[in-house]
Amino acid sequence: MFNFAGIRKSLNKATEAIEEHNSSLEGVLVTIDFNIKNKLSDAKLRDLLSHFSQHRLRNEDFERPDMLGTAYEYLIKMFADSAGKKGGEFYTPSEVVQLLVALLEPHAGMRIYDPTTGSGGMLVQTRNYLKEHGENPANLSLFGQEMNLNTWAICKMNMFLHGVQSADIRKGDTLREPKHTQGGELMSFDRVIANPPFSLKKWGKDECDNDGFGRFPYGTPPKDAGDLAFVQHMIASTNAEGMVGVVMPHGVLFRGSSEKAIRQGILEDDLLEVVVGLPSGLFYGTGIPACLLIINKNKPADRRGKVLFINAELEFEEGKNQNKLREQDISKIVETFNNYVDVKRYAKVVKYSEIAENDFNLNIRRYADTSPPAEIFDVRAILHGGVPIREVHNEYIEEEVLAGFDASLVFDKTDNDYYAFKPSIARKEQIREVAGEAEAKVITQLEHWWDKYQVSLHELDLQVLDAEQEMQGYLKELGYE
């Protein structure tokens, strides 16, 4: 028989003792009260105790020391999945974080700061990056600030379960009251990384217009969109050799007025190194695509006066509720950034002068457009049939759609300008049989050409005439003249 009252009392004492003996958890566990039955019923408490009593959860029992931390991250993700839109307030998909960290390339000995730290995933990923690259993950100094007290507690616990006792995670509103200061000035860091809330309203414009830390040299953004206030705070918190990596909505790239002036200032100071356009549907609670900005206060000489635009909007794994970046998508973006060269229909290195001519508009498609060219409509082919050779061997169609498919499998050349479908293809359904193992996008394109050109307007006219004559014959038989 369970003595629930005694168990609840013992659990409260246990959490107090854990916090008392672990200073890094101060203020995290005291808010938990196992006596509140409407949050934790006797039945749920019994199930909880029965489940955890089956396993001994000590570090020496695990295959690696940070297993509890990994399990906790998994639970955070599951909670974010079930929380829907609210999940985005504290959790950024791990693939996006992995990409952002890889672009920033943190190294041992660095100081890393996340001003909107959420559950702490970005800070944890910087440690993982070091581990994967043969550096000591413990040799990082981690700092963060979080406004939501419940999320702050989750972050503190995340750090603790990953064995990070020294992480300096503060509570508070970063824009109105930054907590990482020293001698009345902002502390500076080697890498500043964040996914701030998109287009935050009531972010504190009035207070920041009178900022005492000099964080907004390019001006403050509108009161209903705090995106570029976070970006400027991050720039101000970065040391002279440091880098910023931040997730932003696309609006910051082209919105006018004060936001245009801020973009102009950042570009004139030659801080922006790359803009990465991400696929839509990656983030919780919003289907809109986002972008990554990498800002570098010490750009390499060959990158000065330039910005690299990477348009990765088409490269992802489609999911039922949420899309996902694959390993190859992340690797391609990082490789393109490292090479810093043009990639057809994917990336473009653009000089400052061109961006200035475009009125400091950073819209990615303006520079690196992945959209197909306008479709050709060949009047002769529509009237008389035949698939135009110039349409089949269009550079975009050959590279992006047919992707190496041999057109001679389905087409015969009728003259120098037109193809015809092979005689063996009498119906559209037979295209799949003849095309064999071709990709779905190839089949779709071939079927589109069939619908577009196979039955010409001239043939339709003849079919209408035949139908009219046949109908007149029926009418005559019925006695209608």
From TrEMBL:
Chain segments annotated as coiled-coil in the UniProt record: none
One Gene Ontology molecular-function label: DNA binding
UniProt cross-references to InterPro entries, sorted A to Z: DNA_Adenine_Mtase, DNA_methylase_A-5, DNA_methylase_N6_adenine_CS, Restrct_endonuc_T1M, SAM-dependent_MTases_sf, T1MK-like_N_sf
Entry EC no(s): 2.1.1.72
Keyword tags: Methyltransferase, Restriction system, S-adenosyl-L-methionine, Transferase
Pfam families: N6_Mtase
Family per similarity comment: Belongs to the N(4)/N(6)-methyltransferase family.
NCBIfam families: hsdM (TIGR00497)
Protein name (record): site-specific DNA-methyltransferase (adenine-specific)
